[in-house]
Amino acid sequence: MTGDDLVALVDGELHFARAWGSGRIKLEAGLRDLLRLRKLI
C-alpha cells in the first residue's frame, strides 16, 4: 500500500474491500486479524 492509499483509507475516501479487490492493498494476515483491522477502520 502506498502512503497516499493509507491516508485515503483512514480518511474514508478509499473503500477497503474495493482497494483490496483491485490489488491496491495487499494483506498478509489471518481472518481474525482482518476482522480486528476492520474494527479500527
From TrEMBL:
**What InterPro entries does the record point to?**
SCP2_sterol-bd_dom_sf
Taxonomic superkingdom: Bacteria
The entry's protein name is SCP2 domain-containing protein
Supply the source organism for this entry: Streptomyces violaceusniger
